[in-house]
Amino acid sequence: xxxxxxxxxxxxxxxxxxxxxxxxxxxxxxxxxxxxxxxxxxxxxxxxxxxxxxxxxxxxxxxxxxxxxxxxxxxxxxxxxxxxxxxxxxxxxxxxxxxxxxxxxxxxxxxxxxxxxxxxxxxxxxxxxxxxxxxxxxxxxxxxxxxxxxxx
Length: 152
What we know:
The chain is mainly alpha-helical.
């Protein structure tokens, strides 16, 4: 693998790891499983693409096709992380609350029936704009440091 891939993967790992202390500071609860979940601050998607784009810009230059591809790909990923995926998460919140409402309605019925309880959908799929920006800033810093450390 090349250095750009290593730096992007490191940036993704850092973003995922930072979610644990940030959540602890905000909510006063320690949740190490956040390392393996989507959503939250900072966006690891944004961190990964921003670090790769920064590394490419510094290594190969702005007028290269490598940089152009990475920049456009990164913008699409970040837009998707805070747009479409966030809307999916909002819809999931509504679906989950409807399920709870249906349970309450069914408890009042006299008719007995057996039904498997459906699993709740994951509600935090996407990111708030601040989470995307936070991930992008982390990625730029990681890309800068990675470039400095890998420079000959």
